[in-house]
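F.,

This is the one I mentioned.
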């Protein structure tokens, strides 16, 4: 199990994840339309850190021009030449369906454009699970790495979708070697009330975990944010569950709440936010132009560890 809870304040909690990912073979990663400096540099830096082996899908001349303009070395990485971003998304999915890679990384195209091909019912990368996103947060001054889900894909998930969101996050936590996760189902209050529907869904998710419909984690909810992460707040409210005050996975009511929570931590608490999409045939690295180098490497590290834990992973020797 990776020990990230005792990291010194000046040390990134991502270091353990990145180190662990370097112990497995770099994941062959299909990079869709890396046609600006940020996306191309991110893929190449991950490759230099032995986390991935990139296959660059996009207009070859444009990729080469971006590399030349910014002093980036493409080495002998494969470039699959397609005319534009739409074609890059479609070709990336085809390559993954053919087993030519085990990870997908977003380049300089819109998330919606990429996910449209990923989630296509007949030709995409869908599974029986609903696709969801997990932010992997390194918050200064907080002992644990935090997962926040879903803050990027599902806008207003119903109970069935939330079940998959929770299970996806738990599976990621365990497959990257972080142990048994403590999962808080967040709402505005810790009591169940018909006036706040998310409290009812939180209670239902906890009952689903009791009945084996969600496995691999310890759940509690509804919990307000303070009661989920602050032992003192939980004590004052008389909450004595294993999760209250010590949560590691925070499941938000909807995308608006999750996105604001993650960005508040990023811009007010100076947290780093890595993140990947789960529930598809392969993990998907969604990077932002605002991501730090450390966040980009952590996203690739988490995705590589997740891919390595899957059966029949197509990887290359280090």
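My design for it:
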């Amino acid at each position: 199990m990776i020990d990230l809870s005792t990291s010194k304040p000046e040390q990134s909690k991502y270091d353990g994840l990145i180190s662990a990912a370097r112990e497995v073979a770099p994941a062959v990663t299909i990079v869709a339309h890396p046609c600006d400096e940020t996306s191309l540099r991110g893929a190449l830096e991950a490759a230099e850190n032995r986390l991935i082996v990139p296959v660059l899908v996009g207009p070859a001349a444009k990729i080469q021009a971006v590399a030349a303009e910014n002093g980036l070395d493409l080495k002998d990485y494969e470039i699959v030449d397609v005319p534009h971003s739409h074609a890059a998304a479609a070709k990336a999915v085809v390559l993954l369906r053919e087993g030519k890679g085990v990870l997908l990384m977003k380049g300089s195209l819109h998330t919606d454009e990429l996910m449209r091909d990923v989630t296509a019912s007949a030709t995409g990368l869908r599974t029986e699970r609903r696709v969801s996103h997990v932010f992997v947060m390194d918050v200064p001054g907080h002992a644990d790495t935090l997962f926040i889900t879903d803050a990027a894909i599902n806008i207003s998930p119903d109970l069935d979708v939330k079940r998959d969101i929770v299970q996806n996050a738990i599976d990621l936590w365990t497959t990257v070697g972080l142990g048994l996760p403590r999962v808080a189902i967040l709402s505005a209050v810790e009591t169940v009330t018909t006036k706040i529907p998310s409290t009812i869904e939180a209670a239902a998710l906890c009952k689903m975990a009791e009945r084996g419909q969600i496995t691999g984690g310890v759940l509690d909810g509804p919990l307000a944010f303070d009661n989920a992460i602050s032992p003192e707040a939980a004590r004052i409210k008389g909450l004595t569950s294993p999760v209250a005050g010590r949560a590691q996975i925070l499941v938000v009511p909807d995308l608006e709440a999750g996105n604001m929570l993650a960005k508040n931590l990023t811009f007010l608490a100076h947290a780093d936010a890595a993140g990947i999409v789960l529930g598809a045939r392969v993990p998907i690295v969604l990077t932002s132009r605002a991501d730090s180098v450390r966040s980009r490497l952590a996203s690739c590290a988490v995705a590589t560890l997740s891919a390595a834990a899957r059966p029949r992973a197509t990887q290359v020797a280090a």
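The first strand starts at residue 27 and ends at 32.

Talk soon.
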